[in-house]
Specification:
The protein is mainly alpha-helical and 302 residues long. It has two domains: 72 residues; 210 residues, MetI-like fold (Orthogonal Bundle). The protein contains 16 helices and two strands. The protein has a two-stranded antiparallel sheet. The longest helix is centred in the first third of the chain and has 38 residues.
Length: 302
């Protein structure tokens, strides 16, 4: 008969490991439930009468009546009766605002990632004077609140004649200091020998940055694409200052116009807000797969 050769220390360590695993699992389960609670309440509220939801508050009460009426009104070709002229106009423009937000978000993500990548590449892969000072200036911009920059930026885009345009919304935030910092920190750990190997093979500096280094930084691109998309999609203050034409409003500005002194349509507001979460979920699901793949496979395969 085989004897149990486990020492008391090994048994104690195994027991502590099980306890630690159970505590960590319970903690993460609680955090997941805590984070998901508002989302689930909002989803249930979108199937209920909006006026009652605002009056009584959102809850997980499963006994309250639910219906698809809010979404029928949201997707209806014509606005439902009983709404004021302003709200009727806005309800018909919902999907136009949705399209505006999609175009603005996709354009912002692509341009921001490209610009920030090349800036971080230049700050990381080359050695030159004032390199540290330039990086310090980039980081220093993170300490300046956007509220301080709003008026100078507004005057600048007005002078440039790009007020009420997508360029006026995108250009001021194109060089995001946080994204540059993330790219730089990621590329710091990459082997610089790859640059020399590319030069030996006859690749240009631009080709090295695009064909060799950019594919390796795919995990950084994936994570920052999620963050940039969330920031652009949820941004309301700056687009509200730039856009003058209601046909160019983003979804967040448009939903805010549903709240007027003449009548509030909470049915469209809640249902439209929940439907507006869908693009961010899709972007997260798409890029999260590449992020996990890049982290698990490693940046450099040898």
């Amino acid at each position: 008969m085989a004897k149990n050769t486990s020492t008391p220390n090994q048994k104690t360590m195994a027991a502590n490991h099980k306890v630690g695993t159970a505590v960590a699992t319970g903690l993460f389960a609680f955090l997941c439930a805590f984070i998901a609670f508002p989302l689930v309440c909002g989803l249930l509220g979108s199937f209920r009468d909006g006026q009652k939801v605002i009056t009584t508050g959102m809850s997980l009460d499963l006994h309250s009546p639910v219906s698809l009426q809010n979404y029928r009104e949201l997707f209806a070709k014509f606005a439902p009766s009983g709404m004021t002229d302003d709200v009727i106009l806005n309800s018909q423009k919902y999907f136009m605002w949705y399209k505006n937000s999609l175009i603005l978000t996709l354009t912002t993500v692509v341009l921001t990632l490209l610009v920030c990548y090349f800036i971080a590449y230049g700050l990381t892969m080359y050695k030159y004077k004032l390199q540290g000072f330039l990086f310090f200036m980039v980081i220093a911009t993170m300490s300046v609140p956007f509220e301080i920059l709003m008026l100078p930026l507004y005057q600048e885009i007005t002078t440039l004649g790009i007020i009420n345009t997508n360029a006026g919304v995108i250009l001021p935030g194109l060089c995001a200091a946080g994204t540059i910092f993330f790219f730089k920190q990621y590329m710091t750990s990459l082997p610089k020998e790859l640059l020399d190997a590319g030069r030996v093979d006859g690749c240009t500096e631009y080709g090295i940055a695009v064909k060799i280094m950019m594919p390796i930084t795919k995990p950084a691109f994936a994570s920052q694409a999620i963050m940039c998309a969330m920031g652009s999609w949820n941004n309301m203050l700056w687009p509200m200052l730039v856009y003058r034409d209601t046909n160019k409003f983003t979804l967040q500005i448009g939903l805010n116009t549903l709240l007027t002194p003449y009548g509030n349509n909470y049915n469209l507001l809640i249902a439209g807000s929940m439907f507006g979460i869908l693009p961010i979920l899709v972007i997260y699901l798409i890029f999260n797969r590449y992020l996990v793949e890049g982290m698990t496979s490693g940046a450099v395969k040898g």
